[in-house]
Structures are given as C-alpha cells and as structure tokens.
Amino acid sequence: MPGESREPGAGAAEAEQVPDTGAVDGESPEFGGADVASDEGPDPEEQAEIVVRDAISAPDIDGRPRRATRRFPLFTRDTAPPEGGGRAAPRDAPAPARQWPVLAVLALVGLGLLLTALDRFRFGTLLIGVALLVGAVLRWLLPDVGMLAVRSRFTDIATYGVLGTAIVLLALMVQPDPWLVIPFLKDTLHFTVSSS
C-alpha cells in the first residue's frame, strides 16, 4: 500500500491479511447477500489490514492471526547472551583487562603450542589440556568471565573439563616412555592392531 513502510528482509515471510466477513464480493453479510448502500462510511477498524510477518493459520478467538508453526523465524533478530558472559572487570578498565579469563586460557594454549612446535610434545599438549581445565575452573568460580562464556555455565564447564581431561590423559600416555599406563587401554590397542 502507498505510504506504508515495510521492514527490509521481511520478503516471503510477510503476508497481508484482511479480515474475512464471510461475504461474497459485492454482497453485504448482514442482509443475506443483498447489495445495500449504507448511510455511514466504512468503519476504520474493519478496513484496517493486519500485517503478519510470520507463518499464520486460522485466527484465534479474538480474531488475530496466530502462528502456525513452532519453527524459529527465518531471521534471528536477537539472542540472549550466555549466563556469566558479562565483563570480568569494570567498564572503565581497558579491553584486555575486561576479557582477562579468555586471554589467560589463550595464553596458556599458545604457550603449549609453542612448546609442541619446539619438539617438547608431551609438555606442550599437557599445557593445552591444563589450559582447558583452568578455563573450566574459571567458568565455575567467577560470576562473569566475558568471552569465555559460550553457552550455559554447566555446558561450558562440562565441555572444557572433558576436553581438558582427555588431552591431559593422552599427553601422559604418549609413547615413548609414558608417564601413565592404563593396562586395559594397552590391551585394547594390541587387540585391535594384532595380526591374525
């Protein structure tokens, strides 16, 4: 309609609905379908069009269209920040200080990668696993950890903890001369690669 502004990106998801009176074109619903001229002008509320930006189905009890699908909309307009995703330092602190938890974890991972590149594989991978475990502890203890918060607190702690523990165990069991020997893992390895 002229003079009506539309949001960009509404596209195919946008539909215009006119209230249905149940009458055939040219007939008045109040008088059995006869064409009757009214003295009064059209009611503005009846003439108003309803603009719907989601998929709809039959109107609800109040006559408003309701959503027909439980799917998420095509375009996400906002997302909730993860719990504990606030700054780890006051607003007036410099940016690195506000994000110190994630920077500490990244510094430990970077140092571990450097040690691995310098042919100290066991110490490097051990440090990477410890960095993830430190991330899990920081996520558990601190109320706000900045960008270290990715999902819910429980999911972040579980993810960092499981990955960190796995990397530490693998670093301790690496050959030659493993620092940690788990017998059933060794038997499983020999069973899977033994020649028949």
Polypeptide structure, described:
With 196 residues, the chain is mainly α. 40% of the residues lie in helices and 7% in strands. The protein has 6 helices and 4 strands, in the order E-H-E-E-E-H-H-H-H-H. Strand 3 and strand 4 (65-67) form a beta hairpin. The chain starts with 14 loop residues before the first strand and ends with a helix.
Per-chain topology:
Layout (H helix, E strand, L loop, with lengths): L14 E3 L26 H4 L2 E3 L3 E4 L5 E3 L27 H4 L1 H18 L3 H21 L11 H21 L9 H11 L3
Antiparallel strand pairs: 1-2, 3-4
Helix pairs in contact: 3-4, 4-5
Short précis:
This protein has 196 residues and is mostly helical. Helix content is 40%, strand content 7%. The strands form two sheets. A two-stranded antiparallel sheet has the order 1-2. The protein has a two-stranded antiparallel ribbon with strand order 3-4.
Assembly state: single chain
Mass-distribution shape: elongated
Helix and strand sequence: EHEEEHHHHH
- Average of per-residue pLDDT values: 74
Query: How are the strands ordered across the major sheet?
Result: 1-2
Over all CA atoms, what is the radius of gyration?
32 Å
What is the terminal separation in angstroms?
A: 79 Å
Low-confidence region ranges:
9-20, 22-37
State the secondary-structure class.
Answer: mainly alpha
- Mind summarizing the main beta sheet? 2 strands, antiparallel
Measured as a percent range, the helix fraction is 40-55%
